[in-house]
Fold these 2 entries.
Entry 1:
Amino acid sequence: MAGRRVIRGRAVADGGSDRERSAGRPGPTPGFGADPRRCGCSGKTPLDRVVFPARDRVHEALDGTSVRLGSDADAAILADAADDGGTERAVDVVALGEERPTVPFDGDAGGNPIVTLACAFVGDDLADAERFGDALATAYAGLDGPEVTIGKGHAVQVPGLSGGLLWLEHFRSTADPDSAGAARRSSIADHLAANVDVVHAFPGLDPPEQARIAALNACNDVYAAGTTADRVVHPVVAAPAGVDPSPSRATDWYRAGLPSDVSVRRGSVLAHGGEGWLLGASVTARGGVGSTEPPIPDDCGVLVTRPFGGLAAFALGTLDGDRGLRELGRDRLTRDARPVAEALATCRPDPGESFDPARHLARVTDVSGEGIGGIGRLVARDGRSLRLERLPILSGVAEASVGHWRLPDVTVETNGSFAAVGTPSALARATDRLRSVERADPVRIGAVDGGDAPIRDAADGDPSRLVESAARWPTAEGER
């Protein structure tokens, strides 16, 4: 049975006896022995098979408690965050299915609502919707008391681990509750967005570069929410027991790898009984964002801010010994997308401004572990469908993915591009602004209509060569 203890600020999970673990010695640094087939967002817990059904179970189980699941958005919005940055935080770690977390902030139910970020490190035995959902529900129910919203959750598989760990970070505004309530009632205001994300380590990269990729990948979700200022990063590192670094050492990796204007808090380190290193972060950023999304207008299209395939280029280049392809992917993985996000933010309503479909983007999301499927799911929430007319892929990736080996989905990204949904005039306006951003390469990939599937295929060629799930996409009738 897995257990958890805390030693010198580190959370330690015993994922089973030594004979149950990998016979090989764990890598002393993140890049040592990392698997290119599972690096970055390729190792997320399966969404359709595990995460989404588990989420439904958790929602039902929390009925009658003061804890609720937030919307399925890129980032949590802390609408009550004080203008002076006054937000208190608390971190907890529990063994999934065995422990309940401490009720945050001493269980005080009289203050402002609490928004919680949750990251699950999932063992092999929990890669099942019922078991995973029940373990999460047990943990979340332990927060009952004050008003708590699980604002953003993330799950990642840890091969060879039995059981799992749940890392939690709680946020609560220190603003006066009356003024905070007024902020909640404002449709657009200066809000704080928060996200947590963790990825598997990349082969051959030094720790500061690993930390940079992991943190910037987590930043992309808050960027997509329209918040790019005052970035704060809380490192999260999970490593095999025995080689786990001290929290101060892990924090130094992030400080060395990130831009100097990013504030880096003291990190959390979790030691586990499985295989491989994982790096990530919780991130907050400030900006003017809408607390509600407008309906997607008619006659919308979708553009991406650069072709897909950055993670695939790195993985395929590593596997095939193609240094040029690997470096192309490395360049994409390590690039800060903040300038792109700032350009997109100018195409969204200013604080207090009404949404204008002719000028404003209706949706912006980042492309990461779901790949292009995440864009389809985004528009499907509004009862719409993406009619895919073009699948832009980085040069060299398509050629490398055929033959002796291929990735299941070359559109799965880490620190990837953004997808924007808008009317033709709104997309044209966004494209004009993106042209001034170095290395942005916006391209329209299709239209949004009333089709009966999240994605319908109207592209030339056979997308299933690059995206296995494309074999299940219905054809857009009469358009191929």
Entry 2:
Amino acid sequence: MAEDNFAGFNDHINNLKSTDEQKALLQELMKTLQNMPGVPDEQKESMLKNALEGNEDAMQAMAGSAGQNTGLPMEEAGNLNAELAILLSLITVLALILGFIVFKLYNNRTRRQRIKEEKQIRKELKKQN
């Protein structure tokens, strides 16, 4: 049933008196809607009808309700972004701490080598005097 309706929409899109870009966008919308899991066929059909009629307010409302079908409750979906931000900030802090430790180790090593070379130069100078 839904496939027949989508074929009808495709014919209707091709018969529109609009630009090729608009037709391409509508065909892309149709393909996207066909591949959307969890959205009922009736809702997909009404979204396509609204797109063909140019009813932007209805399209935005439908897209908003279709975007809520993520399988997660709304609170968990919102917390996911916060958890990702916290995770990324913790990884950044750990990287900074690790970078600081590596920097200190490198400075300590180069300082020891410099002291060792200066000591060897002093010994050589003593032997020459």
